[in-house]
Amino acid sequence: MALLEIENLVVEFQTATGPFRAVDGVSMKVHEKEVLAIVGESGSGKSVSMLAAMGLLPWTAKVTADKLTFNGRDLLGMAPAERKKIIGKDISMIFQEPVASLNPCFTVGFQIEEVLRIHLGLDKAQRRKRAIELFEAVGIPDPGERLGHYPHQMSGGQCQRVMIAIAIACNPKLLIADEPTTALDVTIQKQILDLLMRLQAEHGMGLIMITHNMGVVAETADRVVVQYKGRKMEEADVLSLFESPKSNYTRALLAALPDNATGDRLPTISELFVDEQSLQGAAR
């Protein structure tokens, strides 16, 4: 049984000019111990798809699906109070821009201990002990001292490690990492990716990696879902996707990689992906 199963997910937002469909009929599955990459350029509906699955979109968003389940349980039909017990505990998410995702008014120790208090009911001493263990697990030096720091007192890489520690605090079955390396320099990006893959292997989590970086996809994923303009272009195991992509859009993404450049200038996606008609045949 799939950990997360989505069939024909549609997300619409109301705008001044009428409804805007940000996600249009997307379907996907992720299983235990599997790494699924969702790849596509900015605005392709990757993050919105996962926020919809977790119930974290504003109430103005209209979310429908033929099926949206976690561990066989219907997330759409679930009462909000019941869903809150799952989100942050069994399903957890690492958000974009770690510094902005942490509350600047509270110490990082308070923020991780709050998750442990709400979901696991640990007392103060237990929470501090577990928080130190988590900081050690994600490679934060002097963890006891760091618990008393505010986000602005830590680097971007350290804040990302704090976000990862918070996300894995309750040993989730499914971890969603939304562009986890975008705001970091190249050296720190590698460290964060290695950390995520080590934690995924150690805990046996399902992992969804949202990214626009095909290099990250090649390095981390078992399977890949390619999205464009809110639709799924194709889904394949990572080797098949790189060796024989089926959609024009995927071929355009791969052709735009620096290693595949044939001239002095990298081509743009719009130059490569000119067959808009191929959208009509997109897999859903």
Termini gap: 20 Å
The CATH superfamily label reads P-loop containing nucleotide triphosphate hydrolases
Radius of gyration: 19 Å
CATH fold category name: Rossmann fold
Q: Spell the H/E element sequence.
A: EEEHEEEHEHHHHHEHEHEEHHH
CATH architecture: 3-Layer(aba) Sandwich
In spatial order, strands of the major sheet run: 7-8-9-3-10-11
Low-pLDDT regions: 279-284
Helix content: 25-40%
How many individual domains?
1
Q: Any idea what the shape is?
A: globular
CATH class: Alpha Beta
Largest sheet: 6 strands, mixed
Structural class: alpha/beta
How many E-type strands? 11
Mean pLDDT: 88
- Proportion of β residues? 15-25%
Q: What is the strand and helix layout of this fold?
A:
Elements: E1 4-15, E2 18-30, E3 35-39, H1 46-54, E4 62-64, E5 67-70, E6 73-74, H2 80-86, E7 91-94, H3 98-101, H4 108-120, H5 124-137, H6 143-146, H7 156-168, E8 174-178, H8 186-203, E9 206-211, H9 214-220, E10 223-228, E11 231-237, H10 238-243, H11 248-255, H12 269-272
Parallel strand pairs: 3-9, 3-10, 7-8, 8-9
Antiparallel strand pairs: 1-2, 1-4, 1-5, 5-6, 10-11
Helix pairs in contact: 4-5, 5-7, 7-8
Main location: membrane
Function: Probably part of a binding-protein-dependent transport system y4tOPQRS for a peptide. Probably responsible for energy coupling to the transport system.
GO molecular function, one term: ATP binding
